[in-house]
Amino acid sequence: MQPIVGRAGWGYAGMMHMGKKAVYGILTASVVLVAGCGQREQEVSLENQPPETIYQQAEAKLATRKGAEDAAKLFTEVERLYPYSDWAKRSIIMSAFAYHQAKLYEESRGAAQRYLDFYPQDEDAAYAQYLIALSFYDQIDDVSRDQGITFQALQALRNTVENYPDSEYASSALLKFDLALDHLAGKEMDIGRFYMKKGHFGAAINRFRVVVEDFQTTTHTPEALHRLVEAYVSLGLDSDAQTAGAILGYNFQGTNWYKDTHVLLTGRGISTEEASADSQGWLKQIWRQVARGEWL
């Protein structure tokens, strides 16, 4: 992930891309008790430092290999100590970025949402929304796990595209949206294959139907149609198998899934060129849409 594009003189991006800063700060406690001698050593507290100094300390932390979380906390301190300053505004979005770098996604979302609440029209608002989406997207797990986080990622990515269509993050959000959608379709396929292996063909059909109807633009659609053919053949529903095969052939004739379907159906004397006249329901409707060029 690329950090935000910083304005001249501030921001982690400016530091990393322009290489004009090498800022180091000392973060110390306000009072330290020296063990053994009882002597109280006074050191500079954050409260006594100007906002730009704390901000620069945060940037220096962020530039280190494992300093993202400490950097985020320092950015948050700028916001706390100088809430109405321009440094606070800068620090909110930078803390969101730093927390994300530290893989503290909930904290990153909180900071990014706070930025949107305070500065919804600012030029970095699009990046704040994109960070919220990334905080979900980067947690998407394998298809064998619950996909609730994927739905949240899809919603946040959609918000990025719809609310900030002209931003530099819209195209990346759209790409990630398609990938997340593909992930959800993969989950349905995973369950459908499981049901097929167990011989629960009706349950498998329901899962493959979801892919064909709701995720038809994903990479899983050709296999879903082939699996539908297999399931319908197993149930003796040759007319529905023929229609599913015709849809597959119309849209994905060059795939190995169609080749397998063609062998399976022609071996039973079933055509893959046209939908069956006896097929009814959702498959028949999809075939009509395909034939009119209104689908896929």
UniProtKB/TrEMBL annotation:
Supply the alphabetized keyword list: Cell outer membrane, Membrane, Signal
Q: What GO biological process, any one, is recorded here?
A: Gram-negative-bacterium-type cell outer membrane assembly
Please state every residue range assigned to the domain named Outer membrane lipoprotein BamD-like. 49-244
User: CDD domains this protein is in?
Assistant: BamD (cd15830)
Give the UniProt subcellular location, in the record's own words: Cell outer membrane
Q: Name one GO cellular component term.
A: cell outer membrane
Q: In terms of one coarse class, where is the protein primarily found?
A: membrane
InterPro entries for the chain: BamD, BamD-like, TPR-like_helical_dom_sf
Top-level taxon of the source organism: Bacteria
- Signal peptide per UniProt: none
Q: How does it assemble?
A: Part of the Bam complex.
Which NCBIfam families is this protein grouped with? OM_YfiO
Give the family from UniProt: Belongs to the BamD family.
Function text? Part of the outer membrane protein assembly complex, which is involved in assembly and insertion of beta-barrel proteins into the outer membrane.
Return the protein name: Outer membrane protein assembly factor BamD
